[in-house]
C-alpha cells in the first residue's frame, strides 16, 4: 500500500503543479488578479505532497519491501539501516524523485517566505518553477516510476553498487541536489523578471539569499564529493576532472559568478542583462550536469545508471527549459533598460573581472568535458580529456581570479583611485612577494602553478581580513564577515592544493609481512595480511603500524574488498590524519613470491583543501543569514514608518 | 548593446544540443558480454600442475559428456571461499577440471591438501595465457562446457552456496 500511496501523492503533486501554472497564466493574461491568492497555498501543498511521496519511498527502502522493483534492484535486507536509506537515492528513479521533491520544496519555500518580490514577478516565478517541475514529474511518471511493483516477488534484493556503500554517499548526493535544484529558484526568478520586465535592485535583493542558500549546499556537496572520491577510490587524488565532477563544478562556477554579479545589481543597479543570463545559465548547468550523468552520453567512472532513452527524455526537457529561457532572454532583455555605469577602477569593475574569469573557467571546463563527444561524432575516435588540459588551462586563470578576489573587496563602489588601492594592498602584496621569494629559495621541484598559488594564498589570507581595517568590528554587518570567511577559505583551500601537489611523498613497494619503509617522518611496517568476511563482501586486510618520528605508533588497516555479487573490487584506503597532513595507505595485489603491493603517501596539509571548502560554505551561510536579517529588519522599519505616517 | 549578441547564448545551447543529440543516437555497448559463451573451447595444452593429477588439454574437455572448468590460484582468497562449493559439485557427479593461474606446484599442493581437491585434471597456466584466451580476466572463474566442447556458461567470481543449484542445472542441461 505504501508504494501506491507514494505514487498517488506523486500524481497529485504533478496535478497541483499544473494547477499552479494554469492559475498564473490565466491570472496574468485575463487580468484576474484574485486568482493569485491561491498560488502560494497551491505551491506549498505541492511541496508537501511530493516530499511525502519521497519519504514513502524512503520508508519502502527502510522496510526492505521486496515487492517494489527499485528496492529489489538497489537494496538488500542484510544492509545496515543507513545504506538502506541512502539506497533510496543511489539509483536513477530515486534520485530523480529526490530532484522533484527538492524542486517542490523550493517552490513551497518561495510561497512561504518570499516577501520582497512584486506580486506579478512572484506569481510568474512560481509558475516557472511549476513549469519546470511538470517536466520532471512527467519524466518520473512516464519513464522512471520509482514505485513500480515487482512480480514475482523475489526473496531478497540485489544490493547496491559497492562503491556507494559508504557514509559519504549518505550525505553527498542530497547536499549536491539541494544546491543543483536550489538554483532553479534563481532560474525561475530570472524568468519572472524577464516576463514582467522587473529587473532592478529590489529584484536582486530578493533573489540574493536564495542564490546564497543554493550555493552553500553546492559548495558543501562538491567538497564532500571530493573527499569521498579521495578516500573511496584509493587513487590518492582529490579531483579527477571526471565528467561528473565537472558537471557539479560548472553550476558552482556559474552560481559563484551570479552571487557576485547580483551584488552589483542590488547595490549599483548595474549588470542587469548579465545577471539574468547567469541566473539562467546556473540552473541550466545543473540540468545539463544531471543529463550528462543520467544519459550515459559521456563515459565516466560515475555513470551508475545509464539509459539512452531516458537521456532523450531529459534532453527534450533541456531543450524546452534552457532553449525557452534563452529565447526569452534574447527577446526581452533588449527591452530591459541598461543599468548604471561605472569606472574601470571600482568595486563594480573588480566584480566584472571576477565574472569574466569565472565564465572563462566555466567555458574551458564545458569545452573540455564535451570535447570527447565532439571528436567521437566527427572522427569516431574515442579520446578523453584529462587533468593536464584542465589544470593547465584553468590554473592560471584561477590564480588571476583569486588575486582579483583579494583586491576587489578593498575597492570603492563607482570610482576609486589606483594609487590609493595600491596603498591598501601593499601588505598582502609584500607578503606574496616574500613568500614567493622564500619558496624559490628554499624549495626545489615546485611547479610554477603551485609556487604562485602558495605565495598568493599567503597574501590573500591577510587581504581577506583587510575589509575589517579601521572598522568598528561590532557594527560590521554579518554579510561582510561572511565574505571575509569565504575568501579566507579560498586561501586555506589553495594552501592545501598547492601543498598536496608539491610536497606529497609517495612510495610504492612490494612488501612481505615484517617489511618496513620510511615515508617522510613515518616508519610504516606491514605485519600481516588477513582475510576478512563482511556481510556482502570478502576482503584482504593488511595489519599495518605507522610510527611517527616522535615515537607515537598508530595501527591502521587498509583493505582490498571483493563484492562477488557485483563482481567489483574496491580498495578501502587507510587514512591517518594529523594536524599537518595525512598518511594514506592503500593495499594492492600480491605477486607470486607472496609480496604485497603497498602504496603509501604522506600528503602534507591536504586536509586544508576540504577545510577551506567548508569555510567557503560557512561564509556563504553567514552572508545569507546576514542578508535575511537585514531584509526582515528593513521590512519591519518600513511597516512601522507606514503606520505612523 | 548589440541586439544580435543576445541570441548568442541560444546559439551556443543549440550547438550543445546538436552535439549531445548526435551522441545519444549513436548505439553504445554498455554491457560487456562474455564473448566466449556459445564458442568451442580454444585449443591449448597445459602441463600438469601437481604430480597426483594428469595434465589438461582442450581435447580433454570435448569427450562426449558435460564438464566444468575452474580457474583458481592458491593465492586467491575467494578461491578458498568457493572450495566447499566445488567439492559439493564434485559430490554431485560433476567432472571438474582445474587451471591454476600464476602459481607454483608446491603452493598448489598445499592449497589442495588444506582446502580439498575436487579436480580430475589440473593444468598449470604460469603466465595466464590460456586464461586470457578463455576470456577470463580473474580468479576464480568457472566455465560449463557441453559434450561437444562448447562453452555454455561462464561464472565470474567465487561460487557461493546459492549458486550451486543453478550451476548444476546448467550442467545437466548441457548433457
Globally, the shape of chain B reads: elongated
Write the element-wise H/E pattern of chain A from the N-terminal end onward: HHHHHHHHHHHHHHHHHEEEEEEEEEEH
Mean pLDDT of chain A: 87
Low-confidence stretches of chain B: 28-33
- Number of separate domains of chain B: 1
Name the shape of chain A in a single word.
globular
Q: What's the total number of strands of chain A?
A: 10
Strand order of the largest sheet of chain B: 5-4-3-6-7
**How much of the sequence of chain A is in beta strands?**
5-15%
How many individual helices of chain A? 18
What would you note in describing this structure?
The complex is a heterodimer of chains A (645) and B (175). Chain A has 645 residues and is an alpha+beta fold. Helix content of chain A is 63%, strand content 11%. Chain A has 18 helices and ten strands. In chain A, strands 2, 3, 4, 5, 6 and 7 form a six-stranded antiparallel β-sheet that branches. The longest helix of chain A is centred in the C-terminal third of the chain and has 37 residues, at 608-644. In chain A, 49% of the residues are buried. Chain B is of the alpha/beta class and 175 residues long. Chain B has helices spanning 8-25, 77-91, 105-115, 129-133, 161-173, and strands at residues 45-46, 56-57, 67-72, 96-101, 119-125, 141-145, 151-156. In chain B, the strands form two sheets. Chain B has a five-stranded mixed β-sheet. Chain B has a two-stranded antiparallel ribbon with strand order 1-2. In chain B, helix 3 links the parallel strand 4 (96-101) and strand 5 (119-125).
Amino acid at each position: 500500500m505504501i508504494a501506491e500511496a507514494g505514487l498517488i501523492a506523486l500524481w497529485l503533486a504533478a496535478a497541483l503543479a499544473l494547477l499552479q501554472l494554469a492559475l498564473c497564466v490565466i491570472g496574468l493574461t485575463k487580468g484576474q488578479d484574485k486568482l493569485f491568492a491561491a498560488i502560494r497555498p497551491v505551491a506549498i501543498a505541492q511541496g508537501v505532497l511530493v516530499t511525502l511521496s519521497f519519504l514513502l519511498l524512503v520508508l519502502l527502502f527502510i522496510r526492505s519491501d521486496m515487492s517494489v522493483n527499485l528496492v529489489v534492484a538497489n537494496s538488500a535486507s542484510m544492509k545496515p539501516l543507513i545504506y538502506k536509506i541512502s539506497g533510496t537515492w543511489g539509483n536513477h528513479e530515486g534520485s530523480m524523485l529526490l530532484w522533484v521533491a527538492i524542486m517542490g520544496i523550493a517552490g513551497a519555500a518561495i510561497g512561504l517566505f518570499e516577501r520582497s518580490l512584486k506580486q506579478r514577478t512572484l506569481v510568474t516565478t512560481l509558475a516557472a518553477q511549476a513549469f519546470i517541475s511538470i517536466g520532471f514529474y512527467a519524466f518520473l511518471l512516464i519513464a522512471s516510476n520509482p514505485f513500480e511493483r515487482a512480480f514475482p516477488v523475489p526473496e531478497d534484493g540485489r544490493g547496491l553498487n559497492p562503491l556507494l556503500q559508504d557514509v559519504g554517499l549518505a550525505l553527498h548526493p542530497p547536499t549536491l541536489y539541494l544546491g543543483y535544484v536550489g538554483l532553479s529558484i534563481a532560474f525561475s526568478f530570472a524568468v519572472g523578471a524577464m516576463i514582467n520586465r522587473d529587473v532592478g535592485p529590489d529584484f536582486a535583493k530578493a533573489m540574493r539569499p536564495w542564490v546564497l542558500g543554493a550555493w552553500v549546499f553546492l559548495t558543501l556537496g562538491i567538497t564532500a564529493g571530493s573527499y569521498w572520491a579521495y578516500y573511496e577510490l584509493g587513487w590518492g587524488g582529490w579531483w579527477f576532472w571526471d565528467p561528473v565532477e565537472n558537471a557539479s563544478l560548472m553550476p558552482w562556477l556559474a552560481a559563484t559568478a551570479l552571487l557576485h554579479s547580483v551584488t552589483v545589481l542590488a547595490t549599483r543597479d548595474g549588470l542587469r542583462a548579465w545577471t539574468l543570463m547567469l541566473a539562467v545559465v546556473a540552473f541550466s548547468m545543473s540540468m545539463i550536469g544531471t543529463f550528462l550523468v543520467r544519459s550515459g552520453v559521456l563515459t565516466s567512472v560515475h555513470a551508475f545508471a545509464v539509459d539512452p532513452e531516458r537521456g532523450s527524455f531529459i534532453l527534450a526537457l533541456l531543450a524546452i527549459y534552457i532553449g525557452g529561457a534563452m529565447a526569452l532572454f534574447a527577446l526581452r532583455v533588449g527591452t530591459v533598460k541598461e543599468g548604471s555605469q561605472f569606472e574601470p577602477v571600482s568595486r563594480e569593475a573588480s566584480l566584472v573581472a571576477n565574472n569574466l574569469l569565472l565564465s572563462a573557467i566555466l567555458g574551458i571546463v564545458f569545452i573540455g568535458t564535451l570535447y570527447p563527444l565532439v571528436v567521437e561524432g566527427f572522427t569516431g575516435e574515442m579520446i578523453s580529456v584529462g587533468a593536464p588540459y584542465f589544470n593547465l588551462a584553468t590554473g592560471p586563470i584561477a590564480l588571476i581570479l583569486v588575486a582579483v578576489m583579494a583586491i576587489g573587496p578593498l575597492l570603492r563602489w563607482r570610482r576609486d583611485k589606483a594609487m590609493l588601492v595600491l596603498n591598501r594592498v601593499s601588505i598582502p602584496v609584500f607578503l606574496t612577494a616574500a613568500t614567493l621569494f622564500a619558496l624559490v629559495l628554499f624549495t626545489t621541484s615546485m611547479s610554477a602553478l603551485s609556487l604562485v598559488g602558495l605565495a598568493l594564498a599567503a597574501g590573500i589570507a591577510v587581504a581577506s581580513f583587510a575589509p575589517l581595517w579601521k572598522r568598528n568590528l561590532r557594527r560590521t554587518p554579518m554579510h561582510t564577515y561572511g565574505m571575509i570567511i569565504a575568501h579566507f577559505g579560498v586561501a586555506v583551500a589553495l594552501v592545501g592544493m598547492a601543498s598536496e601537489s608539491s610536497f606529497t611523498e609517495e612510495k610504492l613497494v612490494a612488501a612481505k609481512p615484517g617489511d618496513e619503509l620510511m615515508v617522510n617522518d613515518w616508519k610504516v611496517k606491514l605485519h600481516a595480511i588477513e582475510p576478512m568476511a563482511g556481510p556482502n563482501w570478502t576482503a584482504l586486510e593488511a595489519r599495518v603500524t605507522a610510527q611517527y618520528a616522535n615515537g607515537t605508533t598508530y595501527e591502521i588497516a587498509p583493505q582490498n574488498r571483493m563484492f562477488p555479487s557485483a563482481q567489483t573490487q574496491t580498495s578501502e584506503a587507510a587514512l591517518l590524519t594529523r594536524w599537518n597532513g595525512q598518511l594514506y595507505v592503500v593495499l594492492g595485489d600480491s605477486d607470486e613470491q607472496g609480496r604485497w603491493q603497498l602504496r603509501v603517501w604522506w600528503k602534507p596539509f591536504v586536509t586544508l583543501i576540504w577545510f577551506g571548502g567548508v569555510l567557503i560554505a560557512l561564509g556563504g551561510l553567514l552572508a545569507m543569514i546576514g542578508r535575511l536579517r537585514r531584509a526582515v529588519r528593513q521590512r519591519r522599519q518600513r511597516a512601522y514608518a507606514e503606520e505612523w505616517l | 548593446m548589440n541586439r544580435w549578441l543576445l541570441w548568442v547564448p541560444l546559439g551556443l545551447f543549440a550547438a550543445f544540443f546538436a552535439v549531445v543529440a548526435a551522441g545519444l543516437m549513436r548505439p553504445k555497448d554498455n554491457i560487456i558480454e562474455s564473448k566466449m559463451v556459445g564458442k568451442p573451447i580454444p585449443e591449448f595444452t597445459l602441463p600438469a600442475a601437481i604430480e597426483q593429477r594428469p595434465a589438461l588439454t582442450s581435447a580433454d574437455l570435448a569427450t562426449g559428456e558435460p564438464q566444468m572448468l575452474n580457474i583458481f590460484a592458491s593465492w586467491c582468497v575467494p578461491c578458498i571461499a568457493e572450495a566447499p562449493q566445488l567439492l559439493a559439485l564434485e559430490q554431485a557427479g560433476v567432472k571438474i577440471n582445474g587451471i591454476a593461474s600464476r602459481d607454483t606446484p608446491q603452493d598448489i599442493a598445499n592449497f589442495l591438501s588444506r582446502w580439498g581437491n575436487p579436480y580430475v585434471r589440473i593444468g598449470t597456466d604460469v603466465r595466464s595465457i590460456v586464461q586470457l584466451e578463455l576470456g577470463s580476466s580473474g580468479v576464480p572463474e568457472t566455465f560449463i562446457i557441453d559434450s561437444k566442447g562448447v562453452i555454455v556458461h561462464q561464472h565470474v567470481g567465487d561460487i557461493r552456496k546459492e549458486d550451486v543449484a543453478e550451476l548444476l542445472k546448467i550442467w545437466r542441461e548441457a548433457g
